[in-house]
Amino acid sequence: MKKILSDIYKNRIWLLMVLPGTIWLLLFSYLPMFGQVLAFKKFRIHPDGFFASVINSEWVGWENFEYLFSTSDAWIITRNTLVYNIIFIVVGLIAAVATAIMLSELVNKKLSKIYQTSILFPHFISWVIGSYFVFTFLSTDHGLLNHVLSWFHIDPISWYSESKYWPFILVFMALWKGVGYGSIVYLASIVGIDRAYYEAAMIDGASKWKQIKHVTLPMLKPLMIILTIMNIGRIFNSDFGLFYQVPRDSGALYSVTNVIDTFVYRGLMNLGDIGMSTAAGLYQSAVGFTLVIITNYIVRKVDEESALF
Amino acid sequence: MKGGGAKILRKKYRDPQHLHPVVNTIISVLLGILAVMCIFPFIYVIIISFTSEESIVRNGFQLFPKDWSIDAYHYLWGMKAQFFHSYGVTIFITIVGTIISVFMITFYAYAISRPQFKYRRFFTFLAFFTMLFSGGLVPTYIVVTQFLGLKNTIWALILPLAMNAFYIIIMRTFFLKSVSESILESARIDGASEWRIFFQIIFPLSLPGIATIALFSTLGYWNDWFTALLYIDEPNLVPLQSLLMKIEANLEFMRQNMDVAIMQQSLFDTIPQESAKMAMVVIATLPIAVSYPFFQKYFISGLTIGGVKE
């Protein structure tokens, strides 16, 4: 006991430094984790406050989960979340690496800088603004796309109520916003590659294409793996703004735009169904957690250096 | 082949083999298209905001409208009460939030980067674990509204975004890389306290890293609409992005909060609906668009540090 106290005293400065952050983590990260028990309870607000509400709510076992998985929504949101994320990960990786390589190979470095600045711009825009951008193209009455279609004598399309187009629109928009960030990360890594490798490859008579294939790509591999693990860990999470703002919360599109995050949000705010929404959230966190651990385990087996932890 | 000054050598190292001019042109065009696609929507919105409402009703959004007009901006000026209020809320939460998060994150990250700190592994794990498992939206919502009672307060817009495990890890990596133990040792021998060391040596030394975190954080607050969507109903506390969301369907929300003196029927008859929305988009985006080229450099160096590894 005395040892612990003297240790605490010795480390008091460091402990003081982590104190505000720790309080924040406990309140905003760990307390909600504890709140996940609500997935197994029927939540009732108790007059004695938060803890009383949580503790006094009646246990219902797996009822919330049974209810969740008995609806067709459970299947739709799981499918949408997974399929979109898999497409985003694959297409995003290819697009980001390709863009980074093109940016790095461009002879005119000034032009390359201008391109970088432009491509990164969407990353700094909120999805609220992004949804307005999309609206200027897709608005049924005024949008540019219907205007262009009219030149070809095609009837205007009511974009915000036709679900079949949205998988493409959402993937396009995700790329639009994400490619800049992704490519800059890879570009930073490419710039850091020792030029001697290229020099050596060149002396061996490697063409530009071969240099990319045998030097650049292998050097980027660890970063690609790390970022992909992180993305797989988040495969059950979605960019809420993309799926909520961009389709303007249009009910007609829910079959292709509803993901776990939007489902949980609507369950909480529109339906007030605390139990089922928490259950869906726990399902999301638990599967996500398991996936990171499994992916990381596999990566560690294959290539220890590339593992995240 | 080799030889020449260091300069020539470096140039050769940079471009061991130039691209074939044709390939270079193709790449340049491809990237050019991509770059235009990223910038174009913003320019398009600016054009729409300067189009007369009549022209929009008749011809839709056009790239080259025949009727230009600044009615939309006039109209926004008429609604300045709500508009400026939201602008003020956004600026306030951005400044206060950024200061709070920069201090919380740098203190935390610095402490867990120090080998002298006995419990650093525990506190590193405490932060790192939140990246793997999260409480989810509903429990967080209940904690913030029921336990902390932050609903409809300005703190609901500030505190939930103040920390982030990812930034802590980035900052920790930065401190590990940029702070050399020998400087600290000599300062300690000179009798400087840890706080003094932190503020007079570490802080100035780590300015690039801190600037990066501050930028991430500033952008996070400026662009935030989600916490407002969850926790704010009170019109006086609605931030800019959230205001834009509320007027998405109609301008009713703003009209209710409009300056009474300007509330003349005639104005309502000619509300520049679409162009006014776009004018708001322009004004909300402008600060980012203008300052962006200046901070982009920091941001990129921040991303480079972000090559996180446990």
Layout: helices, strands, pairs:
The complex is a heterodimer of chains A (309) and B (310).
Chain A (H helix, E strand, L loop, with lengths): L1 H9 L1 H24 L5 E2 L7 H7 L1 E2 L3 H8 L1 H34 L3 H12 L6 H12 L5 H8 L14 H26 L3 H9 L4 H26 L6 H5 L9 H4 L2 H12 L2 H29 L7
Antiparallel strand pairs in A: 1-2
Chain B lengths: L5 H9 L6 H29 L3 H7 L11 H8 L1 H34 L6 H13 L4 H11 L7 H4 L6 H14 L2 H9 L4 H12 L1 H16 L3 H6 L8 H7 L5 H5 L8 H5 L3 H33 L5
Give an overview of the whole structure.
- The complex is a heterodimer of chains A (309) and B (310).
- Chain A has 15 helices and 2 strands.
- With 309 residues, chain A is mainly α.
- A two-stranded antiparallel ribbon of chain A has the order 1-2.
- In chain A, α5 (72-105) runs antiparallel to α11 and α6 (109-120) packs across α9 (166-191).
- The longest helix of chain A has 34 residues, at 72-105.
- The relative contact order of chain A is 0.12.
- In chain B, α12 runs antiparallel to α17.
- Chain B contains 17 helices and no strands.
- Chain B has 310 residues and is mostly helical.
- At the A-B interface, α2, α3, α5, α6 and α7 of A face α1, α2, α5, α6 and α7 of B.
Descriptive key words:
heterodimer; A: 309 residues; mainly alpha; two-stranded antiparallel ribbon; 15 helices; B: mainly alpha
In short:
The complex is a heterodimer of chains A (309) and B (310). With 309 residues, chain A is an all-alpha fold.
Assign an overall shape of chain B.
globular
* Gyration radius of chain A, in Å: 25 Å
Gyration radius of chain B, in Å = 25 Å
Look at the helices and sheets of chain B and give the structural class.
mainly alpha
Count every beta strand of chain B, where a strand is a DSSP E run of 2 or more residues: 0
Q: CA-to-CA gap between the ends of chain A?
A: 33 Å
Supply the number of helical segments of chain A. 15
Largest interface: pair, residues per side: A-B, 110 and 108 residues
Oligomer: heterodimer
Number of strands of chain A: 2
Category by helix and strand content of chain A: mainly alpha
